Amino acid sequence: MMIRINLLPVRQVQKREAGRQFIVLAVGILILAAVANGAWYYWLDEKRADAQRHLNDTNARIAQLDKVIGEVKNLQQRKLDVEAKLKVLDDLRKQRGGPVKVLDALATAIPKKVWISTFDEKGGAALVAGNAESYDDVSEFMRALNNIVWTPKGMARVLERQRSGDIRVEMVGGDAAIESFSSKDVGQFFSNIELKGTEATSAPGQTGPAARRVVKFDMTLSVNFAI
């Protein structure tokens, strides 16, 4: 007689156990996935927060720099305004002493055989008229006007304009010392000197064949009062 064993309950138990294990595994995977996703989102949120803080700090620094730049621009504008005012004051100071220096330069430039009868200046342009004993004296006067200059040490006559840009001069007055200055440090009193006309005529107040002959001249030139 054969004994029969019913294995159905055992298989059902095994199936249930396997189902429970699958469910536990699936729940574990879901929990791990949820934790991993939560950690990932937390990491992303921290990165976003860090980026936002960095952006806020950058914007704050930019705003601060903009303020500093604005202050620097204001200082630069104020500096330009002050420099402009100082230039105006310096020009006024120079112009106040300019006519005296110009007349002194004119008197220094006039040769012994030249007499000035008219010096009419307006807006820096001047008309000079007078008499000279000869045409050579007129030429000498024009050269003297071109060579009379102002240097850091006072009035002088140009002796040589060197290729290096320096100007060699003879100081007027004192011991007539010879000096050299850079061209940028030398101021020209008279420029654009142009002879407009000459005429051989009798000296003023003299008539007849025995009258002394002189050369009457007219010239124009530019006058620099800002020295």
Would you kindly provide a brief summary of this structure?
With 227 residues, this protein is an alpha+beta fold. The chain is 51% helix and 29% strand. The protein contains 2 helices and 9 strands, in the order αββαβββββββ.
Brief descriptors of the model:
alpha+beta, four-stranded antiparallel β-sheet, 9 strands, single chain, 227 residues, five-stranded antiparallel β-sheet
- Listing every helix as H and every strand as E from the N terminus to the C terminus, the arrangement reads HEEHEEEEEEE
Low-confidence parts, pLDDT < 50 over ≥5 residues? none
Structural class based on helices, strands and sheet pairing: alpha+beta
- β-strand percent reads 25-35%
Q: Cα distance, first to last residue?
A: 146 Å
Helical stretch tally: 2
What is the helix content?
A: 40-55%
Shape: rod-shaped
Can you count the beta strands?
9
Mean pLDDT: 83
For the sheet with most strands, the description reads:
5 strands, antiparallel
Rg, alpha carbons? 50 Å
Write up what this structure looks like.
The chain has 227 residues and is α+β, with helices and mostly antiparallel strands. The chain has a domain at 100-223. Helix content is 51%, strand content 29%. It has helices at residues 8-109, 135-147; strands at residues 114-122, 125-132, 148-151, 154-161, 166-171, 178-182, 187-188, 190-202, 213-223. The chain has a five-stranded antiparallel sheet. The chain has a four-stranded antiparallel sheet with strand order 1-2-9-8, covered by helices on one side. A hairpin with a 4-residue loop joins strand 4 and strand 5.
